[in-house]
Amino acid sequence: MARIAGVDLPNEKRTDIGLTVIYGIGRQNVKTMLEKAKVDGAKRVKDLTEEEVNKLSKSLEGIIVEGDLRREINQNIRRLEDISAYRGLRHRKGLPVRGQNTRHNARTRKGKRKTVGTVRKEIVAKTAPTATK
Prior knowledge:
This protein is mainly alpha-helical. Helices cover 46% and strands 3% of the residues.
């Protein structure tokens, strides 16, 4: 099992797809990494030699990935919140940051909300006084 940047790569996948498991590495970065390391992207991860894994690790040196990248993104968001920028306020409230409409959509950011103002029949039946004859 190949381990690059602290991440175990999936054995059964092709190298060019398996490398995208690393946070911060997309298909375009993988392409340049493979060219720099001179490794075949069609090769399965389990078939990589130690030398090829080391070459891939070296070609990843100039790119910020995994924990460092996550930390940097979080620091950027905190900075926006601290200076009370509009984007920071949107982050703080959990609303879309990039100008999307929120009237009908944005459920991913806003979450599922409960409808206000309606009461279920069961609750009404329990709380209503029962009339006895």
